[in-house]
Every structure is written in C-alpha cells, then in structure tokens.
From TrEMBL, chain A:
<dbReference type="GO" id="GO:0000774">
    <property type="term" value="F:adenyl-nucleotide exchange factor activity"/>
</dbReference>
<dbReference type="Pfam" id="PF01025">
    <property type="entry name" value="GrpE"/>
</dbReference>
<dbReference type="GO" id="GO:0042803">
    <property type="term" value="F:protein homodimerization activity"/>
</dbReference>
<dbReference type="InterPro" id="IPR013805">
    <property type="entry name" value="GrpE_CC"/>
</dbReference>
<dbReference type="GO" id="GO:0051082">
    <property type="term" value="F:unfolded protein binding"/>
</dbReference>
<dbReference type="InterPro" id="IPR009012">
    <property type="entry name" value="GrpE_head"/>
</dbReference>
<dbReference type="GO" id="GO:0051087">
    <property type="term" value="F:protein-folding chaperone binding"/>
</dbReference>
<protein>
    <recommendedName>
        <fullName>Protein GrpE</fullName>
    </recommendedName>
</protein>
<comment type="subunit">
    <text>Homodimer.</text>
</comment>
From TrEMBL, chain B:
<dbReference type="GO" id="GO:0140662">
    <property type="term" value="F:ATP-dependent protein folding chaperone"/>
</dbReference>
<dbReference type="Pfam" id="PF00012">
    <property type="entry name" value="HSP70"/>
</dbReference>
<comment type="function">
    <text>Acts as a chaperone.</text>
</comment>
<keyword id="KW-0067">ATP-binding</keyword>
<dbReference type="InterPro" id="IPR013126">
    <property type="entry name" value="Hsp_70_fam"/>
</dbReference>
<dbReference type="InterPro" id="IPR029048">
    <property type="entry name" value="HSP70_C_sf"/>
</dbReference>
<dbReference type="GO" id="GO:0051082">
    <property type="term" value="F:unfolded protein binding"/>
</dbReference>
<comment type="similarity">
    <text>Belongs to the heat shock protein 70 family.</text>
</comment>
<dbReference type="InterPro" id="IPR018181">
    <property type="entry name" value="Heat_shock_70_CS"/>
</dbReference>
Length: 140, 637
C-alpha cells in the first residue's frame, strides 16, 4: 500500500478521534441533562393513569399523590406543554383525531405532552378542530 | 475528501449511518432517534416524526410509502394497490409516470424521497459538523433500472451525489463483514414494517451477486400489530360488551399497548396489558383493560402471517436453484425479526442459527456505511485494530494481580504505574507479567518475569519503580521497570500477547466468572493482611521516632496491640484481622494527636514522619489511589 494512502488514513483516523473527543464532550453535557429521559417517559404513562383515576374518583388523598408526583416531575425539569386553544404544531403535538371546532386549533388534549429541559420528551396527543361547527345535542 | 454517508431509504422508516474511526455508527436524527419515519408533508416541508404527527389532520397532503411508487407507471399493479391504501392522491404524469398531487402541485416520487434524503443529510451534517455531499443509498434487490435511476435522481435533488446504489440484502451482508470471507451463499430474511423480502446472495472476492429475490410487498410488522389490536378489542368486547375500536381514544391506547406487548414478548414469555379507565360502561362506571398475553398467545395470533413468509422463501430458493442446506449464512433484517418465533421458524427451515447481532432496524444503513467506507478507502485491513483479549498486569505483594491494561483495550496502547518496595532495604524487585481475569496472581498465566536490582537501600515504601506496559499494533508487549532514583531499568518483550484463539479467551473469561466469589474472598484476605502488616510497620516506626515523647502508658498500649496483631497475622480470618488493625490504628491516632500538641518545630518534624509512616497513600507520578495493601509494592523476593 502506498505511503500517501497510509498517510491519508492516518490523518483520517486522527481526525476522527479528535472529532469524537469534541463530540464526546458536548454529548457529556447533554447526557447530564437528558440521562433520565427514558425513565421519566415511562413514569409519565403511570402519571397519566393517576390523573385519569383522579378524574373519576375525585379523592383528596389521591389528589395529594398527583400533586406530589407533579412536583417531582417539575423538580426534574419536566414541564407540561401548554396546547389548549393554540394552533396545531406538529413539533410539540401529535394529532390523534379530528373533531368539530375551529380549524387547525387544538380542541381537546387527549394525553398531555411534556418537555424535559426544553426538549420535547413526549408530544401532546390532541384532538384538532376540522372547521365544521359543532352539531347541537339538542333535538328539535 | 468529505465523508460519504450510507442511507437506508425505507418504505416505512429510513436510517443513516457513517464510518467513524473504522467502524459504522448510526446517526441519531434531530429528534434524537435512530430512525426517521419515511413520511413527508411537502407543502409545509415537514419530514419524519413531525410529518407523521400531523398525518391525521392532513391526510391528503401527507405522503408515506412513497417508495412503492418510485420509478413506476400508473398502470403498475403496485401503484393501483398503493392507491387503495393511502390518503393522498396519485395521478398520471409525463409518460404515464406515477405522480403525487398535493394541493395544486404535483410531485414526483423522487422529489418526495429527496425530502427524506435531505433530512438524512442535514442530520448527518449536524452530527459530523461538516458538509456531506456524497452518499450510498440502498434499494430492494428487485428494483429495476427505472426504479434505481429514480432513487439516484432523488439523491441528486437532495444535493447528494449517489456514489453507489446498493442492494439492501447486500448491505446487510456487508454489515456482518461477510465480504471478507470465502465464497458464501447467504439468505437475507427481511421483515420490515410493511414489506417482506427474501434474497439469496452469493459473495466472494468482493463480488456480490443476487441469485434470486422474492417477497410480499404487503406483509410486515404492522400486520402483526393489527392482529394483537383485534385480539385485545375482541376480548374486551366479550367481557364488557363494549367495542373499544369504536372509541378513537381507546383505540389509540390499545395500539400503543399492543406494540409495547409485542416488544415485551420478544424478551419475556408473558406480559400484562394494563390500561386503567380506558372507557365507561353504559351506566357511567369506569372500565379498565387488564389482560395477560403470553408468548404462546401471540404466536397463535400471528402464526398465519409467519407462515405466509415461508412461501416466498421456498420459491426464492427454487429460483436460485439451491436447497436449504446450501445456505452458509442466514441474516435477519427488520424490526419484526426480533420475534423469537420468527427466528425459530427461519432456523428450522435453513437448519442453522440466523445472524441477528446487528440491530435489525439499522443493519441495512450500517451496511451502506460500510460500502461508503470502502469507497472512501476507510475500510481496509490496515485499520482493523486489535484489542487485548485479556487483562495484563503484574504480581504485587501477597500474590495479588494488579492490572495495568484492561481487557478489550484497543492497541497500540501504553500504560504506566509507579510501585515501591515491600521491605526495608529491599534492593531488587521481581516483575511477574500476568495475563488473565482472576484477582490472584497464581490463577493467571505468567507471560514472563524479570528482576530489577541495584535499588539503593531505603525504608520500604520509599523507592519508586515505574512499570510501563506498551503493546504495539502487532500485539507485541514490552514491559519496562525503571528505578526513578538511579534510572536503572530492566525490560522484557513478549510476543503474541493478543494471539489467543476465541475459545481460549472464552474459557479464561468463563473461569474468572465461575471463581469470582471465592477469588474476591481470597483477595480481600490478602489485602487485610497487607494492611495489618503496613500498620504494624508504621506503629513501630512511630514509637521509635517519637521515643520518650509518647507517654509510657500509651506506648505500652500500642506495643500490646502490635503484639496482638502480630500474633494473629498469619492465622486470623479477615474479620479478626480488620478488627485488630482498627484497634491499633485508633490507639495510634490518639498518640499522633497528642504529638501534635507539642512545640512548633517538634510538631513539624513529627508530622513529616507520621505522614510518611501512617499514610496508606504514597505520592508519586502515575501512582493511583489504591488501598494500602496493593499500594506501591512489587512482590517481595
């Protein structure tokens, strides 16, 4: 194998290594901030269930549990994505259904979305208005 | 020369990878995932996860499965079939080519695919921190010229020069490094999200020939999910009389639960589906979905789907004029092949275990990156660096193995550490070079030994002997021991320190695991003894140096405790040794503290000595913070 070729390979290997080092440093910072993302995401589905339970049971004790859980998420940098009434935005929301209501506006939040230190941890699953007006329940 | 990236442009998902430091690496997307959903909203230029999330809202403008249209004419059966399953409009373009109409614009499938490639390019550039202009893109083996040409055009529209169009099964074979072996016949079983492909390849001398290919363009993991969803809904209806499929929110939750259950059943034999408050009964009571699903249940549900893959497999073999026994290697591609039942069926048919060690979602992209590496001149034998298969170290006081180079370290590499003597006026040390994973020296293989003499007489712990291990790219190990006071050195060269067969390495590693518990006990016993020994030495030295500055009753107490410890040094168990060591250490600290209360200059000289004497740490360049027993000692002669 030619000397020039070997030299190029050496240069590339050294460059790869230096770039890797740089990326390693930046990823290390990210890692500290987002290391818990997978675990927190799993917690969120249980938190959803707790909130669902609370809607039905309206229990004072359970309410405290939900509040504590919320505070814990808060202290870990998890924040709820506010979407109600806003225009649909696919970077933070996932449209699950269309329904009557103002066009392209979030009509209902089906599952809340959350960010972790500013990055989307889980998009909000929402119902979006189709532009049609709501059909009245009242019979004539 | 800029980097060439490898792109798996898939029907359902795409992935991008690149060679880095001689090995392939899958590049995470801006969204932090290794896969990019092959979904595009061309009007607002949304690609991937973001486009997928607004699909329900915007079905006419959201393009997916565009790969099914690449290079095809309106009259093709595949186009007709696709028309029936997608929400967007497919129209005839020039020469009856399939085109996609979004609002009042028409797009070619190439343009849509280009958006996906563009995102792959942008993600790669963000990751690499440099411009990317070239790519290797994969296509199914059955793609004809027009379809390959269309894929190439897609790359050009995205601003990428397509250096090579690579067959997907060939990419999978490259990912497993099969091109380096002798001629082999390879079967690639690829069950993706929405398509199934089986290919028979012949590899040898850097020539890859696709002998035959077959499949089912409408069979994939999504069908498996659907079977589970149907099952869950049917069971719930049987129990509660309510159709969950009619409730869109409930259906979405079952979909998620079904996918989770499917994934879990690949690693465990049973899973529980728990979705509390999934709906309400007719009288407004909340209803919960709780259901157990076993792996056997799942296998029964999808048995027919797995069966459907076997027809094309048999036809493909027939076309290639091969028998199952002619196949040397079987490779699994696509996320659905993680299912144990599929692996079993494939293994039973071919009579050999399929390769599945490379992530089946990423294996095609990885292979594309390997091909890109070959084009860049990155992948050659020169850059295949070896690793040390086993830990290398030396024997220290009490017959302990002290590692210098850990196993699996990439060579060439070099490590050094400073050691000291174990006895007063010790003028030579023996360096016993060891290889293995066991904590006690005697249980490891001795690669060689040598003596460094001529060390000036000094109290133990004072001399500094630097030991350097250096392995070159050929696996040749040089060990040098140097006395830092006199610069006198001795060395040994050991050849073939990495040249062990896989079986040997595995055997040694297994042994180490088997004996891990007893070895730990043995090592701790030695460490306790070493610690006790060091403390006795320190205590005696403190008493001698302090002379009459120590109160006689303190002195008697310490002497008694020294004797106690000495008496049991060779016979006591670890717990007793540690207890007696602590006794002595406490008494000694009491004396030390009282010595500090003496006049200024005395205090100074005492503390110097006490530092040297009682500390279990010794300073010295390269010296690691270690426990007292191992610290600084090369084995006594």
């Amino acid at each position: 194998m030619g000397k020039v070729k070997l030299e190029n390979q050496l240069k590339r290997a050294v460059a790869d290594y230096q770039n890797l080092k740089k990326r390693f440093d930046s990823e290390k910072l990210d890692y500290v901030k987002f290391a818990n993302a997978v675990l927190l995401d799993k917690f969120l589905s249980v938190f959803d269930d707790l909130e669902r339970a609370q809607i039905h049971l309206k229990d004072a004790g359970l309410n405290l549990v939900v509040t504590n859980f919320k505070n814990l998420l808060d202290s870990e940098g998890v924040a709820e994505i506010k979407v109600k009434g806003l225009a649909f935005d696919p970077t933070t929301m996932d449209c699950a259904e269309l329904s009557a209501g103002p066009k392209d506006q979030v009509v209902k939040v089906i599952v809340k979305g959350y960010t972790l230190n500013g990055k989307v941890l889980r998009p909000a699953r929402v119902k979006v208005g189709s532009g049609a007006s709501k059909i009245s329940d009242k019979k004539l | 020369m800029s980097k060439i990236i490898g792109i798996d442009l898939g029907t359902t998902n795409s992935a991008v990878a690149v060679m880095e430091g001689g090995s392939p690496k899958v590049i995470p997307s801006a969204e932090g995932r290794n896969l990019i959903p092959s979904v595009v909203e061309p009007d607002k230029s949304l690609v991937g996860d973001v486009a997928k999330r607004q699909m329900v809202l915007n079905p006419q403008n959201t393009i997916y499965s565009v790969k099914r249209l690449m290079g095809r004419k309106m009259g093709d059966a595949e186009v007709k079939k696709t028309q029936g399953m997608v929400g967007y409009e497919i129209v005839a373009g020039k020469d009856d080519q399939a085109r996609i109409k979004v609002k009042d614009k028409t797009y070619s499938p190439q343009e849509i695919s280009a958006k996906i490639l563009q995102k792959a390019k942008a993600d790669a550039e963000a990751y690499l921190g440099e411009k990317v202009e070239k790519a290797v893109v994969t296509v199914p083996a059955y793609f004809n010229d027009a379809q390959r040409q269309a894929t190439k055009q897609a790359g050009e529209i995205a601003g990428l020069t397509v250096e090579r169009i690579l067959n997907e099964p060939t990419a999978a074979a490259l990912a497993y490094g099969l091109e380096k072996k002798k001629t082999e016949t390879v079967a690639v079983y690829d069950l993706g999200g929405g398509t199934f492909d089986i290919s028979i390849l012949e590899l040898g001398d850097n020539v890859y020939e696709v002998k035959a290919t077959n499949g089912d363009t409408h069979l994939g993991g999504d069908d498996f999910d659907q079977r589970i969803i149907d099952h869950i809904a049917a069971e719930f209806k049987k129990d509660q009389g309510i159709d969950l499929k009619a409730d869109k929110q409930a259906l979405q939750r079952i979909k998620d639960a079904a996918e989770k259950a499917k994934v879990e059943l690949s690693s465990s034999s049973e899973t529980e589906i728990n979705q509390p408050f999934i709906t309400q009964s007719k009288d407004g009571q909340p209803l919960h979905l709780t259901m157990k699903l076993t792996r056997a249940d799942l296998e029964k549900l999808v048995d027919e789907l797995i069966d459907r893959t076997m027809g094309p497999v048999k036809d493909c073999l027939k076309d290639a004029k091969k028998e199952p026994k002619d196949i040397d290697v079987v490779i699994l591609v696509g996320g659905q092949t993680r299912m144990p039942k599929i692996q079993q069926v494939v293994q039973d048919f071919f009579g050999k275990e399929p390769n599945k060690s490379v992530n089946p979602d990423e294996v095609v992209a990885v292979g594309a990156a390997v091909q890109a590496g070959v084009l860049m001149g990155d992948v050659t034998d020169v850059l295949l660096l070896d690793v040390t298969p086993l830990t290398l170290g030396i024997e220290t006081l009490g017959g302990v193995m002290t590692p210098l180079i850990d196993r699996n370290t990439t060579v060439p590499t070099s490590k050094s550490q400073v050691f000291s003597t174990a006895a007063d006026n010790q003028t030579s040390v023996e360096v016993n070079v060891l290889q293995g994973e066991r904590p006690m020296a005697a249980d490891n293989k001795s690669l060689g030994r040598f003596i460094l003499d001529g060390i000036p007489p000094a109290p133990r712990g004072v001399p500094q002997v630097e030991v350097v291990f250096d392995i070159d790219a050929n696996g040749i190990l040089n060990v040098v021991a140097r006395d830092k006071a006199t610069n006198k050195e001795q060395k040994i060269t050991i050849k073939g320190s990495t040249g062990l067969s896989d079986e040997e390495v595995e055997k040694i590693t297994r042994e180490a695991e088997k004996h891990a518990e007893e070895d730990k006990v043995k090592k701790e016993a030695v460490e306790a003894k070493n610690q006790a020994d060091t403390l006795i030495f320190t205590a005696e030295k403190t008493l001698k140096d302090a002379k009459d500055k120590v109160k006689s009753q303190d002195k008697e107490e310490i002497e008694k405790k020294i004797k106690d410890l000495k008496d049991v040094l060779d016979k006591a168990d670890k717990a007793e040794l540690e207890a007696k060591t602590k006794d002595l250490s406490d008494a000694l600290q009491k004396v030390g503290a009282s010595l500090y209360q003496k006049p200024e200059e005395e205090k100074k000289s005492r503390s110097d000595e006490s530092d040297r004497g009682s500390s279990t740490k010794k300073s010295g360049p390269g010296d690691k913070d270690k426990s007292g027993a191992q610290e600084g000692e090369v084995v006594e002669e």
